[in-house]
Amino acid sequence: xxxxxxxxxxxxxxxxxxxxxxxxxxxxxxxxxxxxxxxxxxxxxxxxxxxxxxxxxxxxxxxxxxxxxxxxxxxxxxxxxxxxxxxxxxxxxxxxxxxxxxxxxxxxxxxxxxxxxxxxxxxxxxxxxxxxxxxxxxxxxxxxxxxxxxxxxxxxxxxxxxxxxxxxxxxxxxxxxxxxxxxxxxxxxxxxxxxxxxxxxxxxxxxxxxxxxxxxxxxxxxxxxxxxxxxxxxxxxxxxxxxxxxxxxxxxxxxxxxxxxxxxxxxxxxxxxxxxxxxxxxxxxxxxxxxxxxxxxxxxxxxxxxxxxxxxxxxxxxxxxxxxxxxxxxxxxxxxxxxxxxxxxxxxxxxxxxxxxxxxxxxxxxxxxxxxxxxxxxxxxxxxxxxxxxxxxxxxxxxxxxxxxxxxxxxxxxxxxxxxxxxxxxxxxxxxxxxxxxxxxxxxxxxxxxxxxxxxxxxxxxxxxxxxxxxxxxxxxxxxxxxxxxxxxxxxxxxxxxxxxxxxxxxxxxxxxxxxxxxxxxxxxxxxxxxxxxxxxxxxxxxxxxxxxxxxxxxxxxxxxxxxxxxxxxxxxxxxxxxxxxxxxxxxxxxxxxxxxxxxxxxxxxxxxxxxxxxxxx
Length: 618
Description:
The chain is α/β, with parallel strands linked by helices. It folds into three domains: 24-340, ABC transporter transmembrane region fold; 360-576, P-loop containing nucleotide triphosphate hydrolases (Rossmann fold); 577-618, no CATH class. Helix content is 59%, strand content 10%. The protein has 20 helices and ten strands. Strands 6-7-8-3-9-10 form a six-stranded mixed β-sheet, with helices on both faces. The protein is elongated and about 120 Å long. Mean pLDDT is 78; it is low at 1-17 and 598-618.
């Protein structure tokens, strides 16, 4: 389509009020629950492995007290071998459970990412064109590929390890209280104070990660555009400008990363100082209790070992908390996409349509892309089955918007667009769009073979049917000259083919689709006069018996249209066939004669009025 539409600001870019961790978790919990529910058995088994491994991990530090106080202190050598065997067995169990847990959870986390990417892509592909108008393709790619990446932390080993650390910490707390409640109380006091500091720190970090996702999407979007439009960039020698634009985006991303690294480093420093403070307190208090005979040497060594288990989750919070914050930010951005209403979920679309004849009627249709800026202003016309309707007029007049409404890309603000009497705003799109075919001005080909691009419109077509479409569209004239024939790779967007060759492939694709309603939006704009003449027969074959809508700036290509609508400023100012409009000497006459120059006026003798010869047939 041409550049008639304007779009509003992307809703994802609007500032959002800050939320606490609890509020964020409440917001995303339904989504987390939906992710966890089908994986309950795997997570349950993982939890069992984690508990087993953690309990086995407590054996070694707990055995230290018996080693020092009983085996060594009391010289009970007969206990040494059983004690060593118990420690060895516990270590083997811990290693096996750790390995199994990592394999199980890591793979399930990657499977989750793959499923979410497929889910988001499937959803995005079914959103209305309004959404794509408001969001760059590169941004959407980032949403699909990058935002879900952090979700693996919800199923990753980091979260499991953190939960295991909490379990171990509670078990350690019980043992520590039995050894010395005084030292345990002091250690707990410091840990609680640090937890309060972390809560404030993460409140500062969360917006940083959310902003990082936004910046990453913008940088990816611009990079995608720059690479896709590399010929335009080089054509205007704009490499330096693109380099600076990309560098600016990367620098913004770097600044954001620096902010997060500074915050994380500060938290890590605080954790280290905490460990030093707790260690100093335990050393001082433990030594005094040993001197007083209130604590054995084995008890002190065991206390320090279990104290590490108690404090370890604090260090883990810094890493796992950052991961979870990033995961929640990604999940929020993913939810924004998934909350967008898909075209096929429009509550108005309840009517299933069968095979159509193709009568299209516009009834006083008004439409705008932005509130208060009407693009169509009361458009009405009737396109009967098997006829062709041409739309002419200056750029930005509303022609492509009319085509977009015929294809049900948009819904009128008022009035109706009907097909065989069915309101297009109420029919289900899966039954309708399979019966329309589109050949656009900007021919889009996928990076595959010529044949792949042609059968895209009808994947179940036979090779013979596809080759027949190629013959009609004159694709065979160039495809069969290639070394690989129809298996020739066309490159990204078909860059290995000329404009005319791409357009012929596009026309063959539409012929193979065998649509009831055909849309030709500047279908021959990429062709020179000779190429246009070669495929004119193909177009005529394609249009035969179908309701066809044609947009063409070359007015000579629409002379045979059954009706011509002259569109200006969103209104139909003239309608009729070529002969009647030319004879009327109105707006169509002006457009035609301007395009064909003074030669068209040579056929107008003074006083000839209604009998104007057609210069195109002279």
